[in-house]
């Protein structure tokens, strides 16, 4: 049995996950801002202020259920928009989300890092840094850049999202949402009618690359897309009608005037003239033979 993916592919996915987890852990341990509670997301109406374990359990399950319902609805809407080719809506949606992460939340993160390290910086320098960082991130994700740079930005964006959830979700709800999202991902990818599976299959049918801001690219997808494109071009070449070959000295088709005599192409009507001349020569030779016999 041949394995489709080997240890090299597993390592390519294991390394970015490890880097993201390490970045989140380092940020939490060194920055107190992300462990301070008080403000919560609107999707978590239960804030877990009780000390009872049963109450904390059902409140975390309720918050996780609401979060999972929102994620499922947004995922289905994204798949429907892609299936019906609403590309402007998808690009606008992803573009605004990336702008907020790369500019607003990156500014908050950098300001908290400087505060925790007790490093002074004026707002002009900070604005220039955030501007260059955000613009470079948008170009790397949505346009052209080295693959390793795009991967670095996607890892950083994932770490920022994790820090946002840790900051604005209750403690029990954070772990419950983590487990619920893991189960949802398994269902969305492996189920026959899972939305993410439908998204991937639709992209494969169209020979298109899925939006880079949605999926981390380890370098394998470019090979798959180029292979699919080459295969479709070869299939089109095989299905194309073959042109008839013109051979030197080929006889003209029936009803076609002209042709080739002695390997040279004759104009139209020349074939009839040649036949008449041959018939006349044969007739003259026959008359001369009859005169000789007489």
Set down the secondary structure blueprint.
Elements (H helix, E strand, L loop, with lengths): L6 H24 L22 H31 L3 H31 L5 H20 L4 H22 L2 H20 L4 H11 L14 H20 L19 E3 L2 E3 L3 H24 L1
Antiparallel strand pairs: 1-2
Fold and architecture overview:
The chain is an all-alpha fold and 294 residues long. It has nine helices and two strands; from the N terminus they run H-H-H-H-H-H-H-H-E-E-H. The protein has helices at 7-30, 53-83, 87-117, 123-142, 147-168, 171-190, 195-205, 220-239, 270-293; strands at 259-261, 264-266. A two-stranded antiparallel sheet has the order 1-2. Strand 1 (259-261) and strand 2 (264-266) form a beta hairpin. Helix 1 packs across helix 5, helix 2 packs parallel to helix 6 (171-190) and helix 2 packs parallel to helix 7 (195-205). The longest helix is centred in the N-terminal third of the chain and has 31 residues, at 53-83. It is elongated, with a radius of gyration of 37 Å.
Give a short summary of the structure.
By secondary structure, the protein is mainly α. The chain is built from 9 helices and 2 strands. Strand 1 (259-261) and strand 2 (264-266) form a beta hairpin.
């Amino acid at each position: 049995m041949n394995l489709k993916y080997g240890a090299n592919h597993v390592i390519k996915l294991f390394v970015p996950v490890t880097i993201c987890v390490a970045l989140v852990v380092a940020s939490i341990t060194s920055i107190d801002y992300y462990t301070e509670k008080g403000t919560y997301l609107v999707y978590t109406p239960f804030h877990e202020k009780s000390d009872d374990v049963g109450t904390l359990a059902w409140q975390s399950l309720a918050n996780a259920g609401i979060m999972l319902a929102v994620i499922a609805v947004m995922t289905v809407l994204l798949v429907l928009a892609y299936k019906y080719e609403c590309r402007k809506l998808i690009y606008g949606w992803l573009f605004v989300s990336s702008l907020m992460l790369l500019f607003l939340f990156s500014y908050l993160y950098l300001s908290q890092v400087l505060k925790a390290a007790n490093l002074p910086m004026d707002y002009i320098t900070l604005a220039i840094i955030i501007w260059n960082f955000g613009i470079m991130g948008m170009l790397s994700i949505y346009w052209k850049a080295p693959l390793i740079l795009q991967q670095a930005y996607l890892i950083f964006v994932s770490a920022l999202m994790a820090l946002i959830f840790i900051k604005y979700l209750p403690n029990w709800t954070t772990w419950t949402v983590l487990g619920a999202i893991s189960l949802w991902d398994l269902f969305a990818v492996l189920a026959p009618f899972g939305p993410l599976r439908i998204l991937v299959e639709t992209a494969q049918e169209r020979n298109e690359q899925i939006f880079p801001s949605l999926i981390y690219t380890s370098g394998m997808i470019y090979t798959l897309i180029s292979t699919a494109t080459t295969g479709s071009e070869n299939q089109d070449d095989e299905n194309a009608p073959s042109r008839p070959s013109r051979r030197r000295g080929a006889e003209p088709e029936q009803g076609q005037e002209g042709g080739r005599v002695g390997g040279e192409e004759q104009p139209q009507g020349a074939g009839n003239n040649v036949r008449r001349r041959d018939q006349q020569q044969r007739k003259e030779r026959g008359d001369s033979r009859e005169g000789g016999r007489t």
